[in-house]
Amino acid sequence: MNLDLHCTVNGEPKSFRIAPGDRLSEVLRREGYFSVKVGCSTGDCGTCTVLLDGEPIVSCLLLAAEAEGHEILTVEGLAKGRELHPLQKAFLDEGAVQCGFCTPAMLLAAKALLDRDPDPSEKAIRRSLAGTLCRCTGYENPVRAVQKAAERMKEEAR
Amino acid sequence: MAIRSFHRAATPEEAVRLLRAGGARTFYVAGGTDLLSSQEPLDAVVSVREALRYLRREEAEFVVGASATVSMVEAWEELARADGGLLRSCARDFATWQIRNLATIGGNLASAVPSADFAPPLLVLDARCVVQGTEDRREVPLSEFFAGAHESVLGADLLVEIRFEEPAPRSGLAWEKIGRTDGDIAIVNAAARIDRDGKKCREARLALGAVAPTPFRAREAEEFLRGKEPDAKTIARAAELAAAAARPIDDQRASAAYRKAMGELLARRVLAAAAEGRGGR
């Protein structure tokens, strides 16, 4: 018994044909949002993170049907045209991207953090990234990248 | 995952009807974090995610809709002022941000895992569960809600909301958890509440989790503390009584012996913190 899902992805209204048991992570990848990674499908690795109404969630643990009427943001929606988001630039500048598999999740969690708290403590940054497993960077460079992005965004806002 | 049909219930009554109309493997889904981390095929799910997603204050009572998320409870200022941050500190120790935004208080209780983090603090708050059946609604004290590991008194009925009274202004409340890492499933968790009468304990409440088939109130320890001054020695004895009531198991996270020892340690810590009138950690 398939159903139609109506939701907003990266600001665009969308309609997807889904199965009742489809996870949101599966639907997003099927529809071409390949920034959403699937590492474990048990909510442990965090690489399928998307923002649902501005809040980071693991999209593998949400039935796609539950996204009806909600707003989803993936990394495809972060950049404005060819202009990267300050977080994306800072991740590049600080060498915070190694294999890149967890990078989209880290970017989105960091965005959700900075949207709430433009001047987060290092502890708050570490806490926001803790839901994403990274086996390359040791988290040091991503933490620095979020700090740098926060500084630049504050300067831009001035 | 394989699910034959998805239903969204607008009311608890509708949810109960839909569940009974479904096949043998039909489940309520709130946050979905437990249900979706298993891979077993299901007949149907009945979503109460939107219908029960609320927090309310009703006179002296706090009301937590079963689908209120861990993050919602963490952010509830009015509650944090009233319970000394007890439930907020429990929420902060719970899994990851991405999970806290999905996982619900009702799901944490209804899954009835021995390590359910919200059980000990809600047990010391004397929380009651509002349960919807086919005909009527009833209240079950949380202390009578768990029937065994992964078993509650719900059957096919629905946990609608959790209610508890605002603790007295001078109640001391405390929460502690030991896990392998921050946010991991508890090896042991514990909460305490002490209402003082001058220097003495007018009433003490102590609850432990992950050291028995269900989270439980350590009644002997509570009884022992009543009317006594909660000094270090008295608290140590009460913690021993609590640990004696534990029935832990060995699993991949910890041995039974370690659980028992840590249960005693956490009992001591939460009682000491509650005796000092501190809030959550």
Question: What are its keywords?
Answer:
heterodimer, A: 158 residues, alpha+beta, five-stranded mixed beta sheet, 5 strands, 16% strand, globular, B: 281 residues, five-stranded antiparallel beta sheet, four-stranded antiparallel beta sheet, 10 helices
Structural features, described:
The complex is a heterodimer of chains A (158) and B (281). Chain A is built from five helices and five strands. Chain A is an alpha+beta fold and 158 residues long. Chain A has a five-stranded mixed β-sheet with strand order 2-1-5-3-4, covered by helices on one side. In chain A, helix 2 crosses helix 5 and helix 3 packs across helix 4. The longest helix of chain A is centred in the last third of the chain and has 18 residues. Chain B has 281 residues and is α+β, with helices and mostly antiparallel strands. In chain B, 30% of the residues lie in helices and 27% in strands. In chain B, helix 9 runs antiparallel to helix 10. The longest helix of chain B has 20 residues. The N and C termini of chain B lie far apart (39 Å). The chains are: A alpha+beta (158), B alpha+beta (281).
**How would you name the oligomeric state of the polypeptide chains in this document?**
heterodimer
Radius of gyration of chain B: 19 Å
Mean pLDDT of chain B: 96
Task: Give start-end ranges of low-pLDDT stretches of chain B.
Answer: none
Number of strands of chain B: 14
Helix content of chain A: 25-40%
Shape of chain A: globular
Strand content of chain B: 25-35%
What structural category do the secondary elements of chain A indicate?
Answer: alpha+beta
Biggest interface found: A-B, 30 and 28 residues
Terminal-residue CA separation of chain B = 39 Å
Uncertain segments of chain A are none
Helix/strand order of chain B, N-terminal first: EHEEEEHHHHHHEEEEEEEEEHHH
Number of helices of chain B: 10
Beta-strand residue percentage of chain A: 15-25%
Instruction: Provide the spatial order of strands within the biggest beta sheet of chain B.
Output: 4-5-10-6-7
Widest sheet of chain A: strand order? 2-1-5-3-4
- Main sheet record of chain A: 5 strands, mixed
Q: State Rg of chain A.
A: 16 Å
